[in-house]
Amino acid sequence: MPTLRHSRSSARLATQAFELSIAAPQVIAYRMARLALAGLPPSARDRREFVRMGTEKVAAFYESWNAMYLALLRANLSLALSPFQVWWSPARGRRTGLTILNRGLAPIRRRATANARRLRRTTS
């Protein structure tokens, strides 16, 4: 059932992209408002949030990079262990690409949606 797996991977990628497209603007809007309203000098809470803005982006980048690297490594090992598998399953290449994209987007989406939830709670 290569087509079903392909459509599941596509659906998962689309879902992650949609969730990220909703969460990222919320986080940006909250943080920009926080920057605009922070006094001089910023409070300890504001300083923690400002530091967190930068450190979490670096951490998400490395998590994403590592996840894509591991997915690519698994795909290469699978290809090396069965050299003619690509000829038997032409959809495998598309699935591999979708898997790598899904794995790379997951940490970024996870952090953005968690931030959106966390920041929504702090304003209520």
Describe the structure.
This protein has four helices and no strands. The chain has 124 residues and is mostly helical. It has one domain (23-118). Helix 1 runs parallel beside helix 4 and helix 2 packs antiparallel against helix 4 (92-123). The longest helix is centred in the middle third of the chain and has 38 residues, at 44-81. The protein is elongated. It starts with a helix and ends with a helix.
Write a brief caption for the model.
By secondary structure, this protein is mainly α.
DSSP strand count: 0
Q: Any idea what the shape is?
A: elongated
CA radius of gyration is 19 Å
Biggest sheet, open or closed, and with what strands and sense?
none
How many H/I helical runs?
4
Give the termini distance in whole angstroms. 47 Å
Number of domains: 1
Helix-strand sequence: HHHH
Mean pLDDT across all amino acids:
86
Poorly predicted spans: none
How does the helix and strand content classify structurally?
A: mainly alpha
The helix content, as a percent range, equals over 70%
Q: What proportion strand?
A: under 5%
